[in-house]
Write a structure and sequence with these properties.
binds magnesium ion; elongated; Spore Coat Polysaccharide Biosynthesis Protein SpsA, Chain A; 311 residues; 16% strand; eight-stranded mixed β-sheet; 10 helices; binds uridine-5'-diphosphate; alpha/beta; single chain; 8 strands; 2 domains
Length: 311
């Protein structure tokens, strides 16, 4: 019988884990009844939780031999947790899913059918309706537009990290060893035949989300810097254009001085222009700095996460 490996990142999720486990068990029993026979194994990744998350996972591990876990030495973030999951998970198919049931396990039978019957390599999930405040919704749709324009990866708006993948696909994802990880981009970059299914967004089963607006902005920036060098080109163009305009201005000023004589008027405008040019320079320097920062982290070859316990 084939096996589906489930990667489940958990950060302070003590109220959700049991609910998640029960729901997955229910779904696999249901699948058996419908002649979809698959083994499954869990890989819970405890991302440095400070609550009872690890103990709850350990209890499950003791009573169910299909439950495995990796526990980090501190919080490394969901991207690292997913990387650890991919490094450890077995199985012929692999799914990454949130423990808060916002990635409904009930979609798994539909996903596996697309892979088995329609020859897809990956099935991703796109959240259709999503209750978000207008600012977040606007920022998020802008982010997807920008990254799709700027990079050679295509990322669907509102796509979740939730996806079912074949072993071959996972093995290829593992070849991307980068330290700065934007998994949505990595998944898209690897290619293969991907099917996207839509579903209505659901609220968290329990607990609270860990994302602040600032973290989401950082995450978006990570995505753009990791998968596009267009900002660097923009910096070059902005720099080039302002240089060209200054030359024009200079010529204008020289001619004016020759024709009308020198003038001391115009200091405020001069100061404004200096500030503007300085602003542009710092902006471009910032863009370049962002890339250098990434290169710096990348060249250190630090591990993406540190494992404290594994079973
Ligand atoms: N998560 C994690 N490490 C973190 C933050 C989150 O492993 O530093 C996990 C979390 O436990 C959950 C998933 O990532 O299973 C998604 O997190 P969350 O529900 O907070 O994000 P949202 O659904 O709001 O995008
Ligand atoms: Mg969630």
């Amino acid at each position: 019988m084939e096996t589906i490996g489930l990667i489940v990142p958990c950060y302070n999720e003590e109220p959700s884990i049991e609910l998640f486990y029960k729901e997955v068990e229910r779904v696999f029993n249901e699948m058996k009844k419908n002649n979809l026979n698959y083994n499954h194994e869990y890989w819970f990744i405890n991302d440095g939780s400070s609550d009872e998350t690890l103990n709850i996972i350990k209890e499950l591990n003791e009573k169910d031999e299909d439950v495995h876990y990796v526990s980090f030495s501190r919080n490394f973030g969901k991207e690292s947790a997913m990387a650890a999951g991919l490094d450890n998970v077995g199985g012929d198919y692999v799914a990454v899913m949130d423990v808060d049931l916002q990635d409904p396990p009930a979609l798994l039978p539909k996903m596996i059918k697309y892979i088995k019957e329609d020859d897809y390599d990956v099935v991703g999930c796109v959240q259709k309706t999503r209750k978000q405040n207008p600012i977040r919704a606007f920022l998020s749709s802008t982010f997807y537009k920008v990254i799709n324009k700027m990079s050679d990866v295509e990322i669907k708006q509102n796509v979740r990290d939730y996806r079912l993948m074949t072993r071959q696909y996972v093995d290829n994802v593992l070849k991307l060893k980068e330290y700065n990880r934007f998994t949505k981009g990595i998944f898209s970059w690897v290619g293969f035949k991907t099917k996207y299914i839509e579903y209505n967004g659901v609220e968290r089963a329990a607990g609270t989300s860990h994302w602040s607006l600032y973290q989401l902005l950082e995450y978006s920036l990570e995505g753009i810097v990791d998968f596009s060098d267009v900002p660097l080109k923009i910096a070059t163009w902005v720099g080039g254009t302002s240089f060209f305009l200054s030359i024009l201005g200079l010529i204008l000023v020289i001619f004016r001085a020759i024709i009308f004589g020198g003038s001391v008027a115009g200091w405020p405008s001069l100061v404004s222009i200096i500030l503007l040019i300085n602003g542009i320079q710092l902006f471009c320097l910032g863009i370049v700095g962002n890339y250098i920062g990434k290169i710096y982290l990348e060249t250190k070859h630090r591990p993406k996460y540190i494992v404290k316990e594994k079973k």
